[in-house]
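Example 3.2
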Amino acid sequence: MKNVTDSFVSSVYWSFAESFGFNTDILATNPINLSVVLGVLIFFGKGVLNDLLDNRKQRILSTIRNSEELCKGVIEQLERARARLRKVEMEADEYRINGYSEIEREKVNLINATCESLERLENYKNETLHFEQQRAINQVRQRVFQQALQRALGTLNSCLNSDSHFRTISANIGILGAMEEIID
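Structure, written as tokens:
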């Protein structure tokens, strides 16, 4: 430290000829050089530094303003999207409810149509069974009648001879003639 103080004190007594040259005392010359350089930088660089800082400050402020405007825009878009989402959700719920009620209506209609079809088929089946029963009954009657007629003819042919046959025919003609007189 003494060397630093000595260099300041002795610099007053230096002459110009003596001041020219290299000072190898690092501790004595560095603080002086640094203070001179810093003084010059502060004096001349103050304006440039202020301009740079002001420009940087303005860019930061404009970036912040732009960011805030973008944020407001994004918030507005978000609100519009939320409103659209709520609207779509309500429409989806409405479609879902309408769809379920439509499905239930279609289900009831299908069940009713199926029941009607089954009822028609049941009626058709019953009519077919009744028709087939009547046909079978008629066929049985015809066979019974044919068999009875064949037996009666066979019995008559075996029991009657031509004379008995002639008397039976005459008696039947007489009965028919009597019935004819009653009708007139």
